[in-house]
């Protein structure tokens, strides 16, 4: 009897096609989940970065405006109206002009009864106290204790009373037989345009009790709708963007009414600018790197009420609005 031996091949281990398909589906699902989370995180990061940049941008602009509005009237003793404005039509944005004098330069008073009458190109000054040097170019110390001379040819000065002013350039200076300083000047082109109101000093009519002070600068703010920027100019320099992504700039004026109470802020600058007690400034901004109707787009608005320090005017206690957020989406 013979025995037959048979050999069996070992079973081959592996995955079936359904198992492979199922594994691939699981892997793809996990990859979709991971990429979705990563995309969401990137979107959140981009949004937060844009919002942070937007908030820093608008805060820097608000801080700059606040400092300069508070400084309006510095070095211009006796002026109660160092602020001018234009109410923009529609969404064109408002304009704001601030007058700032040199706080260290002595202020001279106009001699109203001088035998050398004040006119459109000449003014007779009582020599200011606290100065040294030659009579036609008295000297003073600036904030760095450096000696400076007054009434130099080409220097920019402001001739003003409480509510009116004109910016002039010194042409020449001499001393009268009575000891007064006779200043010849020309009207400077840095004066704000007539649309800012009836502010122009009438040299012959307004000289009684007027002052003559060295001008540090005329600061102008405007909103460029097309470029979405808030722009600033100092005196005759060109406009420079101080904030981007700006979609609105509004300046309102809180004034003192006839009954000595404060009214609601006005859109139009008041005719009697000396009644202004504070400015309510509103800036609206958007995220710069995201367009409207996209997931990362955001808008914000910030409002602040500012009282100019140098007008020596205070709001009643408890009535200063202070900074406040208007909207954030």
Descriptive account of the structure:
This protein is of the alpha+beta class and 329 residues long. The chain has one domain. The chain is built from two helices and 16 strands. It has helices spanning 17-71, 203-206; strands at residues 83-86, 95-101, 108-110, 122-126, 139-141, 147-149, 156-160, 165-175, 181-187, 211-224, 229-234, 240-244, 246-255, 276-286, 299-306, 324-328. It has a six-stranded antiparallel barrel. Strands 13-14-15-16 form a four-stranded antiparallel sheet, covered by helices on one side. Strands 5-6 form a two-stranded antiparallel sheet. Strand 8 (165-175) and strand 9 form a beta hairpin. It starts with 16 loop residues before the first helix and ends with a strand. Mean pLDDT is 83; it is low at 312-329.
Number of domains: 1
Let me know the number of strands.
Answer: 16
How would you write the strand order of the largest sheet?
3-4-9-8-7-10
Indicate the structural class. alpha+beta
Report the major sheet. Answer: 6 strands, antiparallel, barrel
Distance between the termini: 96 Å
**H/I helix tally:** 2
Strand content: 25-35%
pLDDT < 50 stretches: 312-329
How would you spell out the order of helices and strands?
Answer: HEEEEEEEEEHEEEEEEE
Tell me, briefly, the overall form: elongated
**Average residue-wise pLDDT:** 83
Helix content: 10-25%
- Backbone CA Rg: 34 Å
């Amino acid at each position: 009897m013979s025995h037959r031996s048979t050999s069996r091949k070992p079973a081959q281990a592996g995955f079936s096609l359904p198992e492979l398909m199922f594994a691939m589906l699981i892997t793809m699902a996990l990859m979709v989940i991971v990429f979705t989370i990563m995309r969401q995180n990137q979107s959140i990061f981009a949004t937060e970065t844009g919002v942070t940049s937007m908030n820093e941008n608008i805060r820097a602009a608000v801080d700059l405006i606040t400092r300069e509005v508070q400084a309006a009237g510095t070095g211009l003793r006796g002026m109660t109206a160092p602020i001018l404005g234009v109410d923009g039509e529609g969404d064109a944005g408002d304009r704001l002009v601030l007058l700032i004098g040199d706080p260290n330069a002595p202020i001279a008073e106009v001699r109203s009864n001088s035998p050398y009458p004040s006119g459109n190109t000449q003014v007779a000054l009582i020599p200011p106290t606290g100065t040294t040097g030659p009579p036609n170019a008295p000297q003073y110390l600036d904030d760095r204790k450096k000696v400076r001379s007054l009434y130099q040819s080409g220097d920019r000065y402001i001739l003003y009373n409480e509510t009116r002013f004109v910016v002039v350039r010194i042409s020449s200076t001499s001393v009268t037989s009575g000891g007064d300083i006779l200043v010849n000047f020309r009207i400077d082109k840095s004066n704000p345009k007539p649309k800012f109101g009836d502010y122009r000093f009438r040299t012959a009519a307004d000289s009684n009790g007027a002052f003559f002070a060295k001008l540090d600068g005329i600061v102008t703010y405007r909103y460029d709708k097309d470029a979405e920027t808030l722009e600033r100019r100092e005196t005759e320099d060109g406009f420079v963007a101080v904030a981007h992504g700006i979609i609105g700039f509004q300046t309102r004026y809180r004034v003192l009414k006839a009954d000595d109470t404060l009214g609601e802020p006005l859109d139009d600058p008041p005719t009697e600018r000396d009644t202004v007690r504070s400015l309510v400034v509103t800036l609206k901004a958007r995220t710069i790197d995201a367009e409207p109707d996209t997931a990362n787009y955001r808008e914000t608005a910030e409002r602040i009420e500012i009282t100019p320090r140098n007008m020596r005017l205070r709001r009643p206690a408890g009535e200063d609005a202070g900074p406040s957020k208007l909207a954030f989406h």
